[in-house]
Design brief:
Layout: E1 3-4, H1 6-15, H2 19-26, H3 30-37, H4 44-54, E2 63-64
Antiparallel strand pairs: 1-2
């Protein structure tokens, strides 16, 4: 997939937010959290919840990187 979540992981680390806290606070399943590490597809609802929780814009937590490169 061309959407990468490394920005989200970096932001969580900078803010000292463990993935377990994110999971509990947003009521995400463990599969959703695993999708971030594997750069797998998540719904826009998940992106929306993350943006609201972290007070960021989508571009602050995801990046499109063309797989053609």
């Amino acid at each position: 997939m061309a959407i990468k979540f490394y920005k989200l992981i970096d932001l969580l680390n900078k803010r000292g937010i463990p993935k377990t806290k994110l999971r509990e606070d947003l009521k995400f399943g463990s599969n959703t959290i695993a999708k971030f590490a594997n750069n797998e597809t998540v719904s826009l609802e998940v992106i929306d919840k993350l943006c609201k929780y972290l007070d960021v814009q989508p571009g602050d937590i995801i990046e499109y990187i063309s797989e053609d490169n």
